[in-house]
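Reply to dn_fold:

You asked what the input looked like. This is it:
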Amino acid sequence: MTQRMIEINSPYFIPEEQLKSAEPLARLFPGDQPIALEIGCGTGHFVAELATANPGTNYIAIDIYNKGCYKTCKKIEAQGLENVLVMRIEARYLLTHYIEKQSLAAVYINCPDPWPKKRHRSRRLVNESFMELLLHYLEPEGDFYFSTDFTDYAEQVGGMLPNARGYQNCLGTPWVNHLPNYPISKYMQRFLDRGQPIYFMHYRKLGNVSLSELSQPEILCGFRSRWGRAGNE
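and this is what came back:
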């Protein structure tokens, strides 16, 4: 069944047509501040709480789902937040087409689709090639946060990140089940209420990474729009 598209008229929503004419994207915000990206904003609970607590940072919240973007915009409008913009776009496409190199202070990915079937795990967003791609767009010493409710995904990413070049672990362990001052979305809370853990990871890009030594992975246009959810609320 085809999902009905909801028209989004919010001033906080940026369609791709507007992105094409913006140079650079940072100018879409009213203030010149550090920029952070949330990949898979769901219905906006996490980014709204984060933006409220950090008014000195501008946030780009993206999702591939029209309904989630609509609800996120409504939440941002209701709270009067001026430091959040919402886009319906795939993460790798956004990075390679519209984000300036070394311009992101932080990237957040919370409970993305775990693709639990073994034959589908190559579709998981966070892998070696994605982390190398991200090195191009995180600023020196920029932060990467990842959380998942799926144990196998935590084990995969927790085992991969220590070997990913250009990053250092900020926690001292592969993951933690509680990250102080980190917003808990409604989706996360549902799992916590059932006694199921959330796995949090926090890595930081090293300050001496040379982009000239990195290869940029091939990007498949529209990859994520064909497969599953981008993230959760």
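The two ends are 23 Å apart (CA to CA).
Hope that clears it up.
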